[in-house]
Amino acid sequence: MGSESALTDEAYDALHEQAKWRERRIIQNNDGGEVRVPRAPMTTAEDMLAIRATPLVGTQVDTIVYDTAAGTFGMFAHDTVEAEPFLVTEGRYRYNALPGFIEQGTDPLQIMVDFAHEEAIEIFWGFRMNDTHDASNELLRPQLKKDHPEWLISASGPPRHGGSTAVDYGQAEIRELAFRYVEEVALNYDVDGVHLDFWRHPVFFSTVAHGAVAGDTERNQMTDLIRRIRERTLEIGKERGKPLLLAVRVPDSLEYCRDIGLDVELWLEEGLIDMLSTTGYFRLNPWEYSIDLGSQYGVPVYPALSESRVPTGDDPYSDRRSIESYRARAANLWQVGADGVYMFNAFNPRLSYWNEMGSPDTLVGLDKRYYISVRGQGVGAARYVSSGKEYSSLTHLTPGDPVSLESAESSDFSIYVSEDFPAAMQLGKTPKVTLRISVVGIADAAVLSVSINGNALDGARMDKGWLSFDVPYAYLEQGENIVSVLSTKSTGLDRLEFDFSPPSGRDVGITQLTVRADNDEGALVIDAEAEGVGGVSPGSLSIRTVYGIGQDEVPPGFKVVGKYIYPESWVDPGYLFGKADEEGSAYSVSVRLPIPMGNPGLYPLRIIATTRPLDLPFARDDCFFTFALNDEGKLYFPAQVRDLHIDVVYESLSDSQTETAE
């Protein structure tokens, strides 16, 4: 791209500052997958744009980051001389459109730049600084890595952190290549900025990959690269008479960044970057941490919302990927002063939230679901640096990160709810607020005492396995709310009995569980009952306890299958352990587990009820409990909170009037 008109330093600085602070309600990150793996042959720019771009016209998306990294460092889905163009046309890439576009004299990046300029959308080129998808997919591996294995972090042995195909920025050749990749795009494409993504994936130095933390040498090497890129993009911007911004996405902890080799605070102090985006698949600090950092150094901040990777199974209330969950997360960002919302791995341009999340005003009166944490504690932080979890200041609560409740001691959970109820009601919307808690180790609400901001809640009901409470909206604060949960079940009992309500929406369900300690025989007696719902015939009922927790060896008469322990008489673990009643609608099972009653500890228990295997649709009710033995051989169930969220659902006045009339 040739020079348009050179600017004085003063004139360029003014334009640059104006561009830096332009409105960016929603930034969409597009990884270019519509070109590499289209579902059918793609021959025209219109075909490409229709998949992820054209439907965004007129929405709140003001900026697109178009990432052409082809799953690796050194290969891109744009026409390049400095790197290797991604020309693979086999396997899942059989319809790769890049070769055809190059033959036409264009490429996906140029197509996206032309589209963005025509629609007055800001366009950045996205560069993933160390993408390692090629560690598990050799089709993505560039010749560069095959020719120079000494430039990889695995050169000195299998890495402890990060993918084995990550390049080592401690090598001068790698830093030089990264600089030339940026320079080539800045010279040849009329982009508004360059976006350096240090999140995919955050491993950069061999020392860190093998278990150490980065030192001054590594941090200085990366900072020198950022300085070179900054100086060159400023030069190119002045030459063309149009600002060329530099943005980065990094983890949301200065300490974590320093220890993986990124001196982000020094970058900010020296004015090397124009825009800051934080977080990815793990989050270490409250949103205010990043926003305050940007405010301190005069840089706009766009926290990233990526899809949650918390496993949820088929539980709809644990699914953090819903539109309601995204709305809630965006509302929380605006509440604490974010400059905009950055969307990562969100590619369906026809979803409603592209026209909702870009302003707190357009989120008013829309249904939302607020979770304590959207991402799990163990998703990523420790994958890239030793003791990764120690950098976190957040409390995590997901099904994989439960919190145990101690009897007679309240556990407090902080949850942010950024609802403007008065504004919603001015729009004719009436809020209905529901608090839902997923708990194991108890059977009903009678053993829990729950309050929110000091206001006691009652009238709990079971809803798809969750304890649900209606909450007067006046109990909520706009911002942080404290949910207190107290387990009132006493300890040291000889017998525990739990009655279950029939499961909502399921064809089979566990209805009763009794646990009894037989200290004379040194055994734990467990009785369970289940029934079919709506005329469905039951199929099986099984009881299992996880082997290896509280047990030093397999007790006589038992065997281990997988990670569970079963009586030897059970031929097919998990199937047909139950005994149906005469009517065939209920069944029960009883088992004596020879657990040493003098061995205190926790014993996970699993009860599974199923329909007949030939019945369609097949259904099951799967419950987990953790019982405990104290020093006296008494037993109790320590409750665990597995998940917690607040649903806010709005009903318009016209809807409520119609319902009343009907």
Short description:
This protein has 662 residues and is of the alpha+beta class. The protein contains 17 helices and 31 strands.
Number of domains: 3
- The appropriate CATH architecture of the largest domain is Alpha-Beta Barrel
Q: How much β-strand is present in the residues?
A: 25-35%
| Residue windows where pLDDT falls under 50 for at least 5 positions | 546-552, 570-580, 656-662
Biggest β-sheet description: 8 strands, parallel
The 3D shape can be described as: globular
By CATH reckoning, the class of the largest domain would read Alpha Beta
Distance between the termini: 66 Å
**If strands are numbered along the chain, what order do they take across the biggest sheet?**
8-7-6-5-2-1-10-9
Instruction: Give the averaged pLDDT, no decimals.
Output: 85
Q: Could you name the CATH topology of the largest domain?
A: TIM Barrel
How many whole angstroms does the radius of gyration measure?
29 Å
Q: Helix/strand-derived class?
A: alpha+beta
Q: What is the CATH superfamily classification of the largest domain?
A: Glycosidases
Number of strands: 31
Helix content: 10-25%
How many DSSP H or I helices? Answer: 17
